[in-house]
Design brief:
homodimer, alpha+beta, Arc Repressor Mutant, subunit A, 2 domains, 10 strands, DNA-binding
Chain lengths: 251, 251
DNA sequence: TTGGCAAACTGGTCTGAACCAGATGCTCGA
DNA sequence: TCGAGCATCTGGTTCAGACCAGTTTGCCAA
């Protein structure tokens, strides 16, 4: 019940942690660093850790949440906690799709199309695409995975006028490739906005995350060589699954 | 003790939340959206909310954490919870310093220099700056605020050979301006890497955050027109304080 | 061998209680 | 008037126990 004043070491502020969950976090982090726990490995269950460290389950979970926030571990709902694989490096300046750059990093990408539809442009999209209100736009919602783990959901919108029949294609492959091969479309410019966010609602469900876990929201507007808007994309990434790399000239 | 099945509305799955903390989150979010609570306003204390909603304090905190992860509120340690101001928009392609782009958004920026030093290059920095091991480099650590709230800490390194006496200047102003005015240095290219992270250790302390809260880590290498490395920068942002915007040509 | 079901397991949610330590505000004495 | 100091308030940490709802597993029947 009491705090069991931590008198472990000579330097109370250095190694001996004032807060128990920090100590536990360091312990688990050390196991991962030492290679006792490798990416994909399952951690002992919360109740097992409870017995092992003689801490309340809440305290155990506090440490796990911290490791999760640091990207060191992730959870699969009601299954357990697992050691995170390294993140994918993402360079938004490169116009290669997800499939190719994930593969280039020696990982196995996969895509699952959640839904497709052709919908009339609402005011916002009409504005973005510079097309009249009600102009047909393809809406595609996809879930993308790396090594079998869902890492991002995307909602993308494409101008139906320049990509007739797009949603009849197999969208579980590279959209980049489809646009280029079948419609002769390539992207010359991207406008990107991103912000750290909490994954909630649909996104959390699709990523099999508990609602409220941190993520990265990324919006992209892609233009072709004529300055025409080709694609409008909303991506929601697991925060621990991605690292952004950009190389750019300054204006 | 029981879950007190929320019978507030007509549609149990729509508005009425299955989890109490989600309901409370929505309630507070609604107050903010409605303008009852404005940016900077203090929320009722956890114990007050406890009385008001008849929930355990842990449940109250669960809802607050969620709002915090969403960037809607933030905490000041042992002072209270406050409504977040809107984020600053940050465009890494633009070579104007923090001071100018924050001001351009109608906010009040400020900078506090935590420490400065001139230190011989270690292997990593020697490599980055393409300078011999041990070459003198200026290390600067600064805390930057918007409207009085600390939003980022940065650790930056500048080649001392091309900026002699840099750390004698008043570094609480724009470094961009100092480099340009006093050393004739401008940046032509940036290489940026960023990833969502947890703020821990020094960063958390400086930002007066609890260790483990989500943030955004950003590293930047800046080059001048001759391809010479001018500056190496590590920034740690509060996750709710920044939105990244980039406009770029595709390779 | 295989399919389905049930028990066991795991994380998710919630309660309620206690004590700690920094922030804040108020009071009282100099 | 003003500063020191204390009381109070606030979030931070930890404990212990309970029940819920998906996941997993292993057994048994077809």
């Amino acid at each position: 019940m009491e705090k069991a004043a931590d008198t472990t070491g000579a330097s109370p502020a250095d190694t001996a942690e004032s807060r128990q969950y920090l100590g536990l976090r360091d312990g688990i982090a050390a196991r991962i660093a030492a290679g006792d726990l490798k990416p994909g490995d399952k951690l002992p269950s919360e109740r097992q850790l409870q017995g092992e460290f003689a801490l309340a389950r809440g305290t155990i979970r506090e440490a796990l949440f911290l490791l999760e926030a640091e990207g060191a571990i992730f959870r699969r709902d009601r299954s357990g906690w697992y050691v995170s694989p390294p993140p994918v490096v993402y360079d938004p300046t490169r116009w290669e799709g997800f499939m190719s750059y994930v593969e280039a990093q020696g990982r196995v990408p996969s895509t699952h199309t959640i839904s497709t539809a052709t919908i009339p442009a609402d005011p916002l999209l009409s504005d973005i695409f510079a097309r009249p209100l009600g102009a047909p736009l393809h809406h595609i919602r996809r879930l993308r995975s790396v090594d079998g783990r869902a890492v991002l959901v995307e909602k993308l919108v494409v101008d139906a006028a320049i990509t007739p029949g797009l949603i009849e294609f197999d969208l579980n492959t590279s959209l980049t490739a489809i646009l280029k091969r079948n419609f002769g479309i390539t992207v010359a410019r991207n406008q990107i906005s991103m912000q750290p966010c909490a994954l909630t609602g649909d996104e959390a469900v699709d990523l099999r995350q508990k609602s409220g876990l941190p993520g990265l929201a990324l919006q992209r507007v892609s233009y072709d060589g004529h300055g025409r808007v080709v694609e409008y994309d909303h991506e929601y990434w697991r925060h621990d699954a991605v690292q952004i790399n950009v190389d750019l000239r300054v204006r």
